[in-house]
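Q: Can I borrow your eye for a moment on a structure tokenisation matter? Would you mind producing a protein record, from residues through to fold? Write it directly below this note and I will take it from there.
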Amino acid sequence: MRWYVDAMNVIGTRPDGWWRDRDCAMRRLVDVVERWAAAEGEDVVVVFERRPSPPIRSTVIEVTHARTPRPNAADDEIVRRLRAEASPHEVRVVTSDRWLAERAGLLGATVLGSEAFRSLIERP
């Protein structure tokens, strides 16, 4: 099962001051997702709306960003990638965005809410 994660939606589920240092919040999310993906053997693509600074690299998960940074650009990137999937019914999309959830569902993917995903990856 492949996962496409609308990263800023997941980061935004906790009002922990992430907006004061978005790049740090991005690194923290990738760290948690890496540990979870490694432990569970999951294929995860974390999608940001813009390139993190400095760039985030991982040998466990794919960390990517939209081609053009702007609001909701990660949604468009996830839809683009989902359309290219050979078996979109084997993909889970993590988002809180209604538009993305509807598009992903129409393309055959399963959708999991950002809060539920955050709880899943942070489970002890």
About this structure: DSSP finds five helices and five strands in the chain. Residues 12 and 97 are 12 Å apart (CA to CA).
